[in-house]
Amino acid sequence: MKHLSSAAFGALLATLALPAAAQTAWDMSVVWPEGNFHTQDAMKFAEAVKEVTDGDVVITVHSGGALGIKGPEGMAAVRDGLVPIADILMSQQVGDAPELGVETLPYLAPTLADLALLHKFYRPKVEEVAESMNQKLLYMVPWPGQAVYSKNPINTIDDLAGLQLRVVDANGHDFFTRLGAAPLQMPWGEVVPSLAAGTISGVTTSSSSGVDGAFWEFLDNMSTFNWQASSNIVTVNLDAWNELSPEDQDAIEAVAEKLEGEFWLASKAEDDKKIAVLKENGVTVTAPSEELKAALLERAKPMWDDFKERVPGAAPYIDAYLAARQQ
After folding, report:
1. CA angle 71, 76, 77 (to 5 degrees)
2. Taking 90 as the threshold, does the pLDDT of residue 42 lie above it?
């Protein structure tokens, strides 16, 4: 310090006396375990946000439901400011917004290509619902296809009779009731304990969650029904969002748009990877026969019209998508 001129020393003191740049710190709620690809996506997003905002916005990801918020509580928690940002399974929010059940209608959008087309029409509605619940949609990423895990193989609809099957949402409950099963709707955090207790004897979920839950400890078979699309959304509380500078808002929106495409590709790769892990651990993985597929679709289609009648606000988006798919 003694080598500094008096002028330079004064300038240094003036710099040190300046207040530190304001930093926005957001705690992000994620119910999935740390190894889940959605959680990894959230961590990558958090790192990118810190970088593009030059450290102005720092997101801390809390995985495994560490903040005490269960899946169906996600959007309400962000709306009410209990957390500023969260990764949310959209289909579990239908109690607050029935329109968010569109993509989980059975066999409406069974492939990623179908889902991408559906989102072309449906995403504006998701954004509208989010805004009505005091939050902003940043990105949305699908799960791999929904399979059915069971103790015994499922070769015909009769094999589902009486199966105590965990489902995620009301559409799943309705569908598997029509198939003769005995579905129980429950969030992810209750699934493995219910398997261990014998409360359920089957689960419908993705290959990723099957590995997360080490299902091979309870169930021997996985049938790749791919009966339902399902996406997670990341939303931020609007009050928290509006406190950011326009420059930080623009930077975060840009990085969210960029990463969303990468996350979709990660979801596609995730399925093959996790199915391989299930097989390595002794799970028998099969695909439904053409006859079973036809029988499942036959029972699924009436649910589309039932849903449109029950949730008329969703009808235009479903109709526009179906018309585009037929072209």
Report:
1. 75
2. yes
